[in-house]
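Team,

Forwarding the record for the chain on the shared tracking sheet. I've put the sequence and predicted structure together so nobody has to dig through attachments.
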Amino acid sequence: MKNNDEKITSVWRDFEKGRMYNRRKNIYTDTEKNYDYYYGNQAKYLNIGKETPVILNIVKSIVKYKLGVVNSNAYAIVYNPNSYNSQEDGKSLEDLCKALSRHSNKVWELQQVGTKIKDCVKDACINDEGIIHNYFDKNKQEIIAEVIDKNNVYYGNENDSDIQSQPYIIISYRKPVTQVKEEAKTLGINDEDIDLITSDGETLEQAGYTSTTDEVNPMCLVLLKYFKEDGKIYYTRAVKSVELETHINTDMELYPVAHIVWEKVKGSARGIGAVRNVIPNQIEINKIATRRSLAVKFAAFAKLIVNTDYIVNPNALETVGSTIKLKGGATIEDVRKQVGYLSPASMSADAKNLQDDLQDSTKNLEGAGDVATGTVDPTQASGKAILAVQQATQQPLNEQVDTYKTFIEDIARIWYDMWKAYKVDGMQVIFEEKDVNGEAIEVPKTISYELLNKLEANIKVDITPKSPYDRYAQEQSLENLFMNDKITFEEYVQSLPEDSVMPKNALEKILKTRKDNQEKLTQMQIQADELSSAMNQAMTMQEQNGNEVENIAMQGEDINTNAMNTMGGN
């Protein structure tokens, strides 16, 4: 057997280069610090000895506010054809793009990609960068999206934030050794190389490494390296000494990796988040609060002073309800003269003013001051007025909102590229068609591999505001249109968003009940008209039996009675 130290895969060597670069840039230590400050684990950075620190976590409130602004929109992926040769081709391609849009949004919901996207945005806000990796599950025949920690991704060019221009991308996973060996055996790796797959202690670079070092089963790093050749994406998977899969062509043209950086920094692939530059102010705020607490502890309370020559048990003075024993012939008056209190020292307001000023200034400079986050009574202002104030205070975050949208567009573009690469047997999607009654129905169809590759799709992301005040303003506008007779009640109900305050489902049930009753009335009216016509014909026919006329009349009266009852119930 070869010595394990003598055999190192090329992927592992590239990984080592990336790891050394990240260490020089303090990426691993900064990651721990950024998350510590967000979660409030700040005491170890104060260096105040054995004293219990006071932690006033303004970092979390700033991050929460910024995430709330960026996540306050609902997004939907929309595919559109770039070009077509004829009007007929254009209609066909548009229907195809609509089907792809519905399919992508279905996958989005089933896999809870929206939640994963928010996790990435949170990572970017706290720790500079959030990353999504997409891979194709051959068993499910569908794309799977997973969130990757920044610490586990290594770029071939750390100076370029454009993912698709990278020479290679390495993703590291930590997996049980037994699982990796079983997979290697399935892939046809020989026993000699499988024996080289052993556990390691490579946990220091993992996000949250303080907990990952305590592993239940033996684990090892598995590296996935994507790289480009002749415009196509290839990958190699390897552990330290063994390549599990080598030079596999994916037929994709785009790296299946998308990332979002909170704020771009020239010459950096990682950007910078919202926490790092707030940390010095957070430290000073905590120190001032701790000093104030100590000052109150030592000087803000009256101190007991006693001459113990007159008292047998001086400790009893500190015990509630205890009996104080006097020495010799001392009297109560003697003791009163020997016991007193030092008045508490007055405290300067400068420390509190400095602390408050630091907190307010830090929040305001980060765009998360009281003006932006303060509560507003919606009953005292219109939805549009509230939105105007909010939008004015949220202007500093427009860059992050645009970056968020671009991030989702990148994911949608990757998905389309993966469908073209992997759906060689065709792709089953849902088309929307009209039935014989003109009602919209969903019809499953298969898009051929050739048609899928022929389509050049233009991808955009539709944005729908969804904050509480956005919904309030929308419903208020719809209500005004309805009250001014600009739209019908049916149009009003149809236009309400699904998550509206007004109970849309209840209103739809009312409309359905009315429609059913109206259809019944229409049918009864038709029957009544037919009977009336029959009665007129019978009256003009002399040979007609009188009883027949009477029976027809009675049937007509019954129908009219039922119709009146139905109208009364409506």
